[in-house]
Structure formats: structure tokens, C-alpha cells
Amino acid sequence: MPIYNGVYYEKNRDYQSDINNAVAKGDYKAAGEAEIRRNAKIANEGIKNYSPTYNYAGHANKSYGGRNYNNATDYGLLADSLAAAGDLAGAKNAEKDANAKILGEGMSYELRNKYGALDYEGDSKWSDKLDELLGMYEDAMNAPAISMPGYSAPSYNPQYDAQIDELLNKLLNREPFEYNEELDPLYQQYKDMYTKQGQLAMEDTMGQAAALTGGYSSTYSQAVGQQMYNAYLNKVQEMLPQFYDRAYGKYQDEGTNIKDLYGMYIQRDQVDFQRYQQEVANAQAAYQAAAAAASMAYQQQQDQLSNIGNLYGLVSGAEASEYQRYLDKLNQDWAVNQTNYDRNQTAAGLARSEVDAILQAGGVPSAGLISKSGLSPEYINAMKNYYALQTAQTAARSGGRSGGGGGSSRTYPSDKDYKVNKDGSISVKKVRRLSYQPDEGIFTWNGKKYDSVKSLVNAWNNTNLTDDDAEILKRKLYSQAGIRL
């Protein structure tokens, strides 16, 4: 059977005639479904002589959970075709319509989620807030990294180590004081001076002594001259302690000068070292301040990430709670739908049995009962003709027999599953009731359900059925499921 956008149609069917007949009966829903199939046929077959119409299609629309659907469209097939064409959004939307139809019509099919129709889409306020928080978190994560500052200690470069070492070496390795007048220039100067003066004094004295002796040298003059010479030399020797003290004082002054200079260098070095220590203290204070600021900024950044994460968790929890409520509602709808479906199927099975019994009795079932049974008009007419034929054949066989009194002793006719009560009502024999659900392949008999012909027949064989009961059940099995035993 051809299909267009999920709508099945028959090529040779006159859907305009179906529309007219439905409108004449006042069944605008049927007219709408026929119009939908007519439009699908025109579009898919490329018929140029007719145009689509939309006079009654709206009457075929139903609604469930805020979504519209109609019984003429196979939304599951439509979703698959849209997905195959690459329209996944359209497939998801068609799948939602399919689920609305399943729930709205009380069908036993499972809800579809092949293309995400049942995926929770949630309230946009939560989704938008989560997106906003996620963006904030990513921005915070991508912010420049906060690192601890490096510490570089000032270097100390002493400037006077060489001078201090040299002076200290002089002090420690200085030779002890020794005085040698022969090496004293001043002493030698005085010695030469007094030696010359002594020489002159000696000569003068000897001259004077020679004059006293008539100009002749004498031992006396020599002795007196030598005494004078020695007197001058003694003067030099008498001054020797002065020269010693002078040299020792100079030695001491030189040592004092070295110590003073050493002390000056030490003091200057200490000043430089104190300046260096202050620079170190300043650098440490600056480092500690920068480290404290960096640590605070890092903690603030981590607190921000934590706060965003906590808020994200709260919003996610709220969305999860809403999603759970969505699932609970979905499951509740499905449970109610399944219960309604089971009830409808049970009611439909009973209605089919009643329709069958009425047709066998030669009666005409009401439109409401036929609608409840789900049997098509074609099936009703076929069974009506079948039972009429059976009645005619029975009448023909019994036409030549004489009628006796009392009638049959059987409560139920052998070829029927009902009896006509005295008040004209009809009772259906329970063991002769049989219904079949083709969508699920489920047989209902004697108040129980069976999922295979084998299990159904086994149940029959384990029940005390009469031959008439068995024949009627076999006939119903064939008429309902096309299975002949």
C-alpha cells in the first residue's frame, strides 16, 4: 500500500466518494481522514486533474498533551522517513506526534524515543542559567593564572675586602721594633757633624797646645786634641736614646696609622653591610606583600570557581528534580494509558462476542456496540451474510421434518454460542467466547489471555468442552485469526 508523509492510501479507492458519504452521515471525523488520504494520493501519484482540499481534515485532528494528531497518519513511519532525509528535528517532532497518538488513542504500543521525543527538554530558565554558569566557569578557568611572585635577594659586594686584608696582614705580620743607629740617617747625620766638629776641635786644641810649646807637637797636645775629639763623639752617644725614642715613636705611629686606617675600612664596610641588610629587609617585605596579595587573589579565584560550581550543582539539582517529575508524569500517563488500553480491549472483546451473538440470532447490533467492538462494516456484513446462509441451510434441512412437542432439550443450540431467553434477551456461553487482538497476537478465552495458538488449544484440550463448543471455537479462530484447525 503506497504511503506519503506517513499516510497510507489505496490507489484505486475513490476517497472523494468516502468524503461525501461521511459528510452525508454527519461523520466529519471520517470525512477528515478520507480527505487526508485523498490529498496524500494526489500528491504522491502526481495527479494533475484534482487539487488537494482542506475542508474536513481539521475534524480528523485530535489532541493529547498539547499535540495534535490524526488517525490517518502513521507518525512513526513519517519520523523514519524524515530522519532518512536528514531532517532529525522533523523526525523528533513527528515522533512526539506518534507518542501523542499512542497515549491519546490508548494504544498498546511502546512510546517512541528513537529520535529523542522523550528526551527531557526542560524549562528554558534552568537551561539558560546552566549555560550562563558554565560560561562563567569557563571564563574563570581561562583567566590569567595567578602565580606566586619570585624572590630575588639583593647581592652583597664588599668593596674594601682587599684593603682590609692587606692592612690586617700588615698588622699581624709586622716585625717587632729594632733600632740600629747605623741605619738611622739622622743619627748618621749627627754623627758626621759631631765627628767633623770633634776633628776641628781636636785640631784647634792641638794647635793651641803646640803654640804653647813653641810650635812643636807634643804628647800633651795630642792628648788634649784627642780628648776634645772624644768629647764631641760622646755627644753623639749621649743623644742615642733620643734617636731610639724617636725611631720607636715613629714605629708606633706607623702601627697606629695602620690600625686607624684598618678601622676606617672596617667601619665603612660595616656601613655598606648595614645598607645591604636594609635592602634585604626591604626586598623581603616587598616579597611578602606581593605573595600575600597573590595568595589572596588566588583564593578569591578558587572561591569564585567553588561558588560557581556550587550554584551549578544547585541549579542542576533543581533541573534533575523537574526531570524526575517529568519522568513520573510520563510513567503515570503510560500506566493509565495501558490500563485504559486493557480495559478497552476487554470491552472490545466482549462487544465483539455480543455482536457475533446478535448476528447469529439474526438481529442488528447497534452502531454504538459495533463501534465499541472495533469491527469494520465489511466484517459485520460478511458475518451477517454468513449467519443468514447458515440459518437458511438449517431451515432447509429441517423443512421436511414433522414438528413434535417440547422442542430441543439443549439449553444452547449446538451451532451457536448463545441462547435466547424467555424475555427476548441473549446470553452468551462463556466457554464459547473468543477474541483476538491482532496487534499483540493475544487471544482472550474463558477469562484468560494466551499469546500463542498452541497454548490456547492446550487450554481447550484441558477443559471439558462439548463437541459443539469445540466446533464453534474453531470457527471463531478461523474467522478472527485466519487459522484453521
Question: Could you please describe the fold and organization of this structure?
Answer:
The chain has 485 residues and is mainly alpha-helical. The protein has 13 helices and nine strands. A three-stranded antiparallel beta sheet has the order 7-8-9, with helices on both faces. Strands 1-2 form a two-stranded antiparallel sheet. α5 packs antiparallel against α9. The chain is rod-shaped.
> Overall mean pLDDT score?
81
Widest sheet: strand ordering: 7-8-9
* Continuous helix count: 13
Q: Tell me what portion of residues adopts beta-strand conformation.
A: 5-15%
Q: Can you count the beta strands?
A: 9
**Major beta sheet, specifics?**
3 strands, antiparallel
Tell me, what's the shape?
rod-shaped
Helix content: 55-70%
Structural class call reads: mainly alpha
Please write the string of helix (H) and strand (E) elements: EEHHEEHHHHHHHHHEEEEEHH
For the CA atoms, what is the radius of gyration? 67 Å
Determine the N-to-C terminus distance. 30 Å
Low-confidence stretches: 400-411
Q: What features would you highlight for this structure?
A:
single chain, 485 residues, mainly alpha, 3-stranded antiparallel β-sheet, 9 strands, 64% helix
